[in-house]
């Protein structure tokens, strides 16, 4: 069981923002709690984001991979493994660990996990696929891109429906990413095709700053050209703050 502080008392715990935060925290905690503590697998290269002797970072392994998309276009991506699984023969398999969470089955036409998960796990997964198809497709593609041999998912439910700060693990399920993609009707070839179309569209545009936005009501992605200087105010504020800190340090040394 994990304790989380997610929302203010004057806000509803089932608002979209709070539900998103709840799912994010559950995924982060679950992916670390199911690991065997003290037994780590190390890659040849150290973690590029660790500075100093900080040993309290989350368990993750980065794998950089490159694909050729044709027409002299190469894609380089930093993919992630959440853990390794050791077989009896000592062979290691990389896995991705994710968590599906139940918040209130009465509000999303779902089934009660505590009563139905053991006997109707397929129905529970089908309901999650109906309500969160994009999330499951994303997890599957991430596992495929990383080359993970397994995708392990946990079913996490609120300890009490009226309290989003305490959760309990109901069960787990393990899939082979390629087989799971076929099970949820995810076409990997179509996913690569969509990516290539977006790249081709971007390559045709003049140099500048653009925003890619998914239309909320249609299966359409829109590309917007942003005016010059958009979002630059935040960067300027950061630069100003760093300059102020530097000048303060200089004054202190004097």
Automatic annotation (TrEMBL):
Entry's Gene Ontology molecular function annotations: RNA binding; translation initiation factor activity
Region (Disordered): 230-254
Gene Ontology CC terms, in alphabetical order: eukaryotic translation initiation factor 3 complex
Top-level taxon of origin: Eukaryota
Keyword rRNA-binding recorded: no
Assigned keywords, A-Z: Cytoplasm, Initiation factor, Protein biosynthesis, RNA-binding
Bias (Acidic residues): 233-254
InterPro entries in the record: eIF3d
Protein name as it appears in the record: Eukaryotic translation initiation factor 3 subunit D
